Amino acid sequence: MAADQYDHLFLCDKDSDVTLVIGDYEIPAHRFILSKRSEYFKAMFSSIFRDAGSEKIVLYETNLNAFKRVLDYIYTGKTFAQYNRWYSTRCEDTTSISFEQMFEILTCAQYYMVDEFIKCIVSILKNRGRDAPFSLLNNALAYSFDELILYATDLILEKVSDNLNERFFENLSPLAVKHLLTQRLDTLEPDIFKALVWWMRRNSVHSHAFPQLLELVELHLLDETQLDILFQPTPLIQRDSYKTLLTEQREPALKVQKSHQ
């Protein structure tokens, strides 16, 4: 039977043989349908699983709205380009769904092992990510999705030029800034430093991360005039911490220079 032929049973008490519980919300469901598209439920309803015969199954640590999307797909096979009963409008291009919401749905689909839906979501995120690679990277890192971290990183590295704009890191999370600083950015170190300082001045709430981020910049390659922007008009880091970091970078560099003399 085709997936869309189960559409009439979606959220329907008719022939329901199990109730899924998320918080205070109860969802009537059907074991044989859940088992068809979800390896998680297939295993759950096997005779060896503790809750195999339970009439009610509590789903812990599950985002309700994300699960509704996943369940919709399990019953209908419909994706975001098609009508979704949980929203009052049609989501033709998925742009009405934020990156964060998409990743919540992806995480839910992964947890419940709905493989075909996972492929669909990843494909959509890659398409959207072409126009918004920084947003894609922020969320891919936040949700630890390696395939999309790599994809977003490659897109961003393609945009790096010899003259890096000082706003390069503008909309990135601290985790994303750190990630990019560990990459081989094909540009000048002074430009990377300027872009980082620009970001730091506008993200003082993350000041605890500043020393770790500065460790990823080759400060010893910069002159004092360039480094002064760390302290003008106001200091972004303690002078002592700055001097320690600079010394730690200069000593290995000096040893390398001596070994080549």
TrEMBL record:
Chain ranges of the BTB domain: 16-83
Entry-linked PROSITE patterns: BTB (PS50097)
Superkingdom of origin: Eukaryota
CDD domains linked: BTB_POZ_ZBTB_KLHL-like
Any one Gene Ontology cellular component term annotated for this protein: cytoplasm
Cited Gene3D superfamilies: 1.25.40.420, Potassium Channel Kv1.1, Chain A
Pfam families: BACK, BTB
GO BP terms, alphabetized: adult locomotory behavior; circadian behavior; modulation of chemical synaptic transmission
Stretches of the chain forming a coiled coil according to its record: none
Family annotation (InterPro entries): BACK, BTB/POZ_dom, BTB_POZ_domain_cont_9, SKP1/BTB/POZ_sf
SMART domains (alphabetical): BTB (SM00225)
Identification of the protein by name: BTB domain-containing protein
